[in-house]
Structure formats: structure tokens, C-alpha cells
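# nightly structure sweep
# worker-07 picked up a monomer target from the shared queue
# config: single-sequence mode, recycle default, output format = C-alpha cells
# input follows
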Amino acid sequence: MLTALKNVEYGFESTRPRSRGGTDGIFLIDRTHKPKNEMMRKLFDRFIDKPAAEALEISEHFGIELGEFMPVRVVSHDLRLLGLLHRKTNADILILVDCDRGT
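# output follows
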């Protein structure tokens, strides 16, 4: 877990937003990946798209529209921390919401 949190330091690479095999860091999760995987179910079905979702509370708390957050995963070996990322010029906001163990 601590290694995964340390990998947040790598940041989000906007020129390569999707995970490349064997690379640690912060990566985009989107709805287009087929077949749908457990990370997508956890982040979209059980968090973002859920009626009266905590995601809306987070959005309201930070004063940022939910659509402005990027669904992401922090990758470290076989552990993936799932969250929402909002890019800002002076500092990014990363909110971790779940954990997914790789297979």
C-alpha cells in the first residue's frame, strides 16, 4: 500500500494517460475498455454512477463539477488504488475511493 501511495509522485502523464504494462503511476480509467473489468465496476457502477453517490458529495465539497474529475487508478505491482483526479495549474487533487488487487 505504501509503495502505491509513493507512486503518486510519478504523477499523471497527460501525453500517455493510459497504463502501459509494467509501468507504475497514475492512469486514466475510461468506459471504453472491453470487456468491462472489476476496476471499472468499482469506480463507475459502485461509485460514480450510483444514485446519491458519495462522488456527488466530493464534487460539492470541493466545488468542482463531477464531470471535471478524471477516474484514475494508482498502479503499483499488483495493487491499484482507485480514485478521482482533478488537474489544476498549481496542484492536482487526487481523492482515493477504493482499492483493487491485481490478479
